[in-house]
Amino acid sequence: MAEHKPILIIGGGLSGLYLAYRLHKANIPFKLLEASPRLGGRIYTLQGLLGTPLELGATWFADIHTDFNTLLEELRLNKFPQFDTGLSLFQTKSFEPPQKFYVPENETPSYRIEGGTASLINALTKAIPKDAICLNTAVTKIQRNKNDVTATTLNGDIYRGTKLCLAIPPALVETLDFNPPLPENLMSILPKVQTWMLGSIKFVIEYRKPFWREQGYSGMLFSHSGIITEMYDHTDFTAQKFGFTGFLNAGASEFTKEVRKDYALKQLVELLGKEALDYIHYQDKVWNHQWISNGAQNILRPHQNNGHTLLQKAYLNDCVYFVNTEAATAFSGYMEGAIRAVYTYLRKTEILP
Questions:
Q1: The CA-based dihedral angle spanning residues 295, 13, 168, 341, taken in that order and rounded to the nearest 10 degrees
Q2: Are 237 and 269 in contact (CB under 8 A)?
Q3: Would the pLDDT of 270 be above 50?
């Protein structure tokens, strides 16, 4: 087994936190450097005014995500199936009534985590030393030295380790100054690796009661004509806290949040009735901030260059590694991919057999 020495982790999303968790269990020292003021990355759960867990980031998973499910069991976190019973709606044109359809009972349903996806982030965070995590710590420069690697932050702080794991979207690696430089063929592919969720607008609405269920609707909506393009029932596992979650048309990023809310509520009133106006809380999030985006991406297909062979290699004399969901060769972009990318790194470096 390789000698255990300090490891630097850049990024405090699921992959970075899970790597920290595994290293801590193996008694390997690490330092996790996160540029933003919070942990979780693309996992982002808000508490509604009535205490409803409202997901503005990663939410769903399935039985096929075996490593992710194993982690939930290890952390003693429970899952529950996504509600989809009743009539669902599909809008094709704005001037035609919506089509109504039933979704057959799914033998392989999607699931959510009891208490919200942030429960996973909280469990991982509690299991690792607090002094090994640095928030508001934006790394700007990475240098490979003779005996170690250093990460220099925007504030001029320097962190040292013998390996460095990039647990941030590959496109963001372009923003870091490497000395010596990373290979040109790698740098040319980074802006063409799709960052999952980038450009998405996710919304949540909290309600006091599930009026749509009372009308026989599942809460599932797909639309080609409204600002809401995709929506699901967001009632929590106790069936006592209610709401919707889903995605808005990407073009709505040009509107203010208030305008987006007005358009979304108008669409829901047209489809489900005036009770949709009796909401408790609305929130949305445009996923284009500086911690996942380095400007517009040249993306032609979903998961473009995710799992690329160049993301599987180690760089700067086996010192720098990609450990993020976009680097995973299976389920890249998903929470399962974040877990698998960590396992790949641990096996590659002989930390795990």
A1: -130
A2: no
A3: yes
